[in-house]
Design goal:
single chain; nine-stranded mixed beta sheet; globular
Length: 433
């Protein structure tokens, strides 16, 4: 089958967008600090009319504008140097924003030259980890649970707790609107399978359908967050994904689930016949994550507020350990209720302040390290105390050869510099609650 010329595809796409009332395309990336940044292209300009293919070319943007707004000089880059990178659109993620229907959005990968992916691109980092796994014959699947608070006038909108039916009635129009809007953004979002009231006051959770495409889940997290923010505003609420937005309240997380298959057979390779119901390769995968936990959590819990979750009663774990169905363990091995077979592992030490491309990519890198090096799984329950502050977790990350290697020197050094600066800011209420 022959392919249409790129210009004809672009022209047809522009015609479809304009017919739908779209005036702008937002080129979106998520920077090292988890800020969602965009530059919008007016698709009615003469340049676009004369060369529709321009929408595939991306947008040039100053590197310090989207990565290093306040940090460039701190780690050796001249903020006035005029260094530019290209935000190249992944067109398969193009979607119209239902909460702002004159705008479409597309997620981008940054390139430093037309043929060179930027060393600072967080999306490219995740793609590299997916590719490394495939090269090793491993196919990873990811799931995610997204927790958040709804506030009104600075207070939770409800004082009810976990799975409360009355509270779900009260927010049903909000949940319905969020899920309806996500259902029309299928190019950039996996479907929502479960919604429920969480344990904290005004706290809710959406569970995203498991996917064998980790990039789809990372994109979904951004789409879901942005949609929740927009719908909350329409209802007079403020949504926050901050782990602990106020004292004396159960904290929010963003739990990541992981399983894997080989590239040849497609069956889940985690379950097996050892005493814990795990395969040898599955055991090695778990050990890879356990081994790298002290450094990994600097990426999956990258804010000072994150470490307020690591207290008794928050069910996330504070030791470098794993358990089968242990909700107080850092790594929980999940079992199917009916078959009792091990199905996946859950990383509980992850929250909404994490860049999903970095968090999922680092999670995959740790798991793959365990598989490729055939690490022997330690006994469950045991383990040293994990770092209990951002500064301490960054010290562990600084010593990690694995993350230095997979992130590359520029992304690694940039992440370290930004987070070390944040960890040293004078304490303010906003940093804590």
């Amino acid at each position: 089958m022959s392919h249409l010329p790129r210009e004809k595809v672009a022209k047809a796409l522009l015609h479809t967008l304009k017919a739908a009332g779209v005036k702008w395309i937002r080129y979106i990336l998520v920077d090292i600090s988890n800020s969602v940044r965009c530059i919008a292209l007016n698709i009615a300009t003469r340049e676009v009319e004369e060369d529709p293919g321009i929408i595939f070319h991306g947008i040039q943007s100053s590197i310090n504008a989207h990565f290093f707004v306040n940090y460039a000089d701190e780690f050796g880059y001249d903020s006035n140097s005029g260094t530019y990178e290209n935000m190249f659109p992944n067109v398969e993620t193009l979607h119209i924003l239902p909460y702002n229907p004159t705008h479409a959005a597309v997620y981008c990968t940054c390139f430093s030259t037309p043929d060179t992916v930027s060393e600072f691109s967080t999306r490219a980092f995740l793609e590299n980890q997916i590719s490394s796994a495939r090269s090793a014959g491993i196919h990873f699947a990811i799931g995610v649970e997204i927790e958040f608070f709804l506030l009104k006038d600075g207070k939770p909108i409800s004082t009810k707790n976990w799975a409360n039916d009355t509270d779900l009635n009260d927010v049903s129009s909000f949940i319905d609107q969020v899920v309806d809007m996500l259902s029309v953004q299928t190019n950039a979002c996996s479907s929502i399978e479960v919604a429920h009231v969480e344990s904290g006051h005004g706290q809710y959770e959406l569970i995203v359908k498991y996917s064998w495409n980790p990039m789809e889940i990372a994109d979904s997290i951004i789409t879901i967050r942005q949609t929740i923010h927009a719908v909350a505003k329409q209802h007079g609420y403020r949504a926050t994904f901050l782990p602990k937005p106020m004292p004396d309240i159960i904290a929010s997380g963003m739990h990541l689930h992981l399983s894997f298959s080989d590239m040849d057979h497609g069956a889940n390779k985690l379950p097996g016949n050892n005493e814990h119901g795990l395969s040898e390769t599955g055991s090695s995968m778990i050990m890879g994550v356990v081994k790298h936990l002290p450094a990994l959590i600097a990426i999956t819990q990258p804010s000072r507020n994150s470490y307020l979750r690591m207290k008794p009663g928050n069910w996330i774990g504070s030791r470098q350990n794993w358990e089968v169905e242990g909700k107080d363990a850092a790594i929980r091995v999940c079992r199917d209720f009916s078959s009792r077979m091990c199905t996946n592992i859950e990383l509980r030490l992850c929250d909404g302040t994490a860049n999903p491309y970095l968090a999922i990519g680092a999670f995959l890198a740790a798991a793959l390290d365990g598989i490729t090096n055939r690490l022997v799984l330690c006994p469950p329950h045991q383990g040293d105390e994990l770092p209990n502050s951002l500064a301490d977790s960054l010290d562990a990350l600084k010593q990690s050869q694995l993350f230095k290697d997979v992130m590359g020197p520029r992304l690694f050094d940039s992440f370290m510099s930004i987070k070390e600066m944040e960890s040293q800011y004078p304490i303010r209420d906003v940093d804590v609650y």
